[in-house]
Design goal:
Number of helices: 14
Radius of gyration: 30 Å
Number of strands: 15
Largest sheet: 10 strands, antiparallel
Strand order of the largest sheet: 4-5-6-7-3-2-1-8-9-10
Length: 426
């Protein structure tokens, strides 16, 4: 009997040790990366290892941020971030848990004419879940809280009054919260699917730009070109939204490193289309960057400019036609070229292809202080660096004269001299 009791107690001790080890291992097991829970339809993603510090820098040191806060999108983001920050900063223990941890804010469409934000913080290990959940419970003790299950995960919905609800959950070591319950559900579904944005096989474009993001930036901003114009359309006027829509065809993703300065925000990063995609930036594959020289002749009142530097215009033009063909704009483009050639007896494509060089830029200048009330406030220019100055001058003179003759303009009126330069009028 005595031997049986000894064996029994040994088994109990061993069993308790195994259970304790498994429980300790679970507590110390690393959490999933917060980015794994971000749905792939995010229009904008902001990442930071210290969001509280970055946000405080924006509010305190960037003078024009207060002006930007009048914009609906920025105001909504500011209000929601302030609410979440008030909870996370309420207790020192919680603040210590989340400081220095990767945090994300992503913006998503939640309807045809609405959007909202998703907040995610990756914890060091899942043992911290109960601590954070306790803080949210205490913060909402005077409010109505309903718990529900979604895809085997518990979601807490906190009623804030006036029809507003903040929903949050803690899953796989990630704090997920949003003022849109639907977005929390989307994040849970994304996390459980195992299909992460940083999966190189399924989301190659994002994975590549994410890998280039700088660790020393105040924040990293990622832009999804497929969704970004649709998001902006929610708070831009119809005309501006329509003008913004074509950027959907520029690329797939951009990754921008944000540096916050007292009087400005500095962005630097990478924009990437998929290989052999129908995005505009793919036309630059194989091109070599050029030393920028066109800025030397831009007026002092230049408001903005879009610059292109290439080493082989012919290959660029071939790729550009491929891009237009993929976006079903090639037919209209060629029809306009054919009409110009027929109307003015020209061969624009062949003639210009032989003389265009390695730089061209679209420039907008502002004349808002002009004393002439009849002069437009904004003027647009096209600047092209030509391969051979003399050959190009002769060709452009011939084009100008041909257009002028067809339109009934006297030869002398189609050219004018200004400071030792010939100006042709088309």
């Amino acid at each position: 009997m005595r031997n049986i009791l000894i064996i029994f107690f040994v088994l109990v001790i061993l069993g308790a040790g195994v259970v304790g080890y498994l429980f300790y291992k679970q507590l110390k097991s690393p959490s999933s990366k917060a980015i794994n829970a971000i749905p792939s339809n995010a229009a904008i993603i902001m990442e930071s290892n210290d969001f509280q510090k970055a946000w405080q820098s924006l509010e305190k040191t960037t003078s024009f941020w207060r002006t930007l806060s009048d914009i609906g999108f920025i105001k909504d983001l500011n209000d929601q971030t302030t609410y979440l920050d008030s909870i996370l900063s309420a207790e020192g223990q919680l603040s210590a848990l989340v400081n220095g941890r990767p945090a994300f804010i992503s913006a998503h469409l939640t309807g045809a004419d609405d959007y909202d934000f998703l907040f995610l913080i990756g914890l060091e290990n899942i043992s911290q879940i109960s601590t954070i959940d306790d803080v949210f419970v205490r913060a909402s003790r005077d409010l109505t809280v309903e718990k529900r299950s979604y895809d085997k995960v518990t979601i807490s919905d906190i009623s804030l009054g006036e029809g507003r609800t903040f929903s949050y959950t803690l899953s796989k070591g990630i704090l997920i919260g949003s003022f849109s319950p639907m977005l929390v559900e989307d994040a849970i579904r994304q996390l459980n699917s195992g299909n992460s944005l940083i999966d190189k096989t399924k989301n190659a474009a994002f994975a590549k730009v994410h890998a280039t993001s700088g660790e020393n930036a105040d924040a990293n901003v990622y832009i999804n070109y497929q969704m970004f114009p649709k998001l902006m359309g929610n708070f831009l006027n119809a005309k501006t939204a329509k003008e913004l829509a074509p950027i959907e065809d520029l690329a797939n993703w951009s990754a921008l490193d944000l540096k916050i300065k007292p009087n400005f925000l500095m962005f630097n990063g990478l924009t990437l289309p998929k290989d052999s995609s129908d995005k505009f930036f793919s036309v630059f594959f194989g091109q070599t960057p050029q030393e920028i020289e066109v800025t030397d002749i831009m007026p002092d009142n230049t408001a903005k400019f879009t610059y292109f530097g290439i080493d082989d215009f012919e290959s660029y033009y071939t790729a550009f036609k491929f891009f237009m063909d993929g976006n079903k704009t090639m037919y209209d483009y060629q029809r306009r070229i054919d009409k110009l050639n027929a109307d003015y007896s020209l061969d624009l494509q062949n003639d210009l292809l032989s003389v265009i060089g390695s730089e061209f830029a679209m420039v907008t200048t502002g004349n808002i202080n002009s004393p002439n009330p009849n002069r437009e406030a904004i003027t647009n220019y096209l600047i092209i660096k030509m391969r051979d100055a003399e050959e190009s001058e002769t060709l452009l003179k011939d084009i100008s004269l041909s257009v002028g003759v067809t339109n009934g303009v006297d030869k002398a009126d189609s050219l004018e001299q200004y400071r030792e330069h010939i100006i042709g009028v088309l």
